[in-house]
Every structure is written in C-alpha cells, then in structure tokens.
Amino acid sequence: MPAFVVAGLIVLHSALVFSSTEGFFVNDPHPNVGFGNFVTWAATWGMALLMVVSGMGVRYALRRRSAGAFVRERLARLGVPFVVGVVVLVPPMWYLRQMLWPDFERSYWRFWLRFFDLPAMVKGLPVRAEWSSRGMVFDPAHTWFLYVLLVWSVVLLPVFLYLRSPRGAGLVDRVAGFVGRVWLVALGRSPSRSC
After folding, report:
1. Which domain holds residue 118?
2. Which of 29-33, 51-55, 57-61, 87-91 reaches the highest mean pLDDT?
3. Shared-domain flag, residues 4 and 50
4. Fewer CB atoms inside 10 Å of the end CB: C or N, the chain?
5. One domain, residues 96 and 127
6. Which of 43, 34, 52, 37 is nearest to 12 (CA)?
C-alpha cells in the first residue's frame, strides 16, 4: 500500500500543473476543472493517508529501536534529505520562479545567499513553515513533508513510547474497542451480536 500512496504523489503533482494558474512552480495558463477536482480530492484524502502510512512506519520502527536509535534513524532518513533538498533542490525552483518577475536581476549565487538565510529560516520555519529574507518569502517547497514528519516524530516520541508500554497498549485497546462499538452502532448493528 505505501508504494501506491507514493505513486499517487507523482500523479497529484503532475495534476497540479494543469489545475490552477497560480500557486505552483509550473502552471498551465488554461486550468482544467477536472484536474482541479482531482487535486482537491487527492489532497484531502492523500495527505491523510500519507500521515497514516508514516504513523505505521513509526510504530514498526519503535518495535526494535530504543528512543535514541529512533531519533538517530529519523534524523538520517528525514533530516538529511530535508537539508539536502533545501540547500540543493529547492533554491533553483524559487530562482526560476523569481526570474518571471520583470524587475528580477540577480545572479543565482546572490539569490541562493538570499534564499539560504539561516537566521531567517531558524526564526520562520518552526512557527510558520516559511521564512522572510530581505523582503522575499520562501518555503521549503516539496521538502515540507520531511520537515513536518521529523518535527512530529521527535515531539511525539514520549507519546509513542507511552503507547508502547503495557499501560499504553491497554489504552489503545480500550479506544479501539470503543471506536469499534461506535462503528457497529453507526452501521445499525448491535455490538453484542457481532462478538
């Protein structure tokens, strides 16, 4: 299933080109309503599904790893690609986009230094997921998902560790049982008959 979700990302990003005239790095001047509807549907359900798949990955990762090993693994798998993407892949996209502006006259190197404004990034990324550097607003583009997963993985690690404990597992069982009973009632079945 994770492979289908990732393949869906490729389809979604391809459809973004044809769904709007603004808001993406490349846009068709004549957007298609069908692609727009597909993007809305895919963004609504696809992102939630990606988060579920990521959560499943966390659960499996914590089965055989200590908290320290988990954080090191997350930094390697999410942090390193995020930093490489923000330093190497994202600036050219922003540079090409800025070149469309009539008053934009900068070399790539000067633009890159403006984009990679570390104090502005440190100030803006954790709060707004974007940063302002000398009058221009930037964001991590397609690498935002890596950043969000890394932050949530570290911030929620105490919760994940609790849920792995016997008391946490009991809580998960009680919540799952409650949700199952509510679901059966919503379907018009009696919880006692289904057991």
Report:
1. 73-158
2. 87-91
3. yes
4. C
5. yes
6. 43
The total domain count for the chain is 3
* Residues 24 and 90 grouped into a single domain: no
What is the rounded distance in angstroms from the CA atom of residue 157 to the CA atom of residue 125?
Answer: 20
Q: Same structural domain for residues 111 and 127?
A: yes
Q: What pTM did the predictor assign?
A: 0.74
- Both 149 and 91 in a single domain? yes
33-60: b or e for each residue (b if 16 or more CB lie within 10 Å)? eebeebbeebeeebeebbeeebeeebee
Instruction: Give the list of residues 6+ apart from residue 163 with CB closer than 8 angstroms, or none.
Output: 169, 171, 172
Tokens representing 151?
Answer: 């932050």
Q: Are residues 186 and 134 in the same domain?
A: no
pLDDT digits (tens, 9 = 90+) for 159-190: 999 988 899 989 989 999 998 888 888 888 87
Q: Which residues contact 15 (CB under 8 A, 6 or more apart)?
A: 35, 38, 39, 42
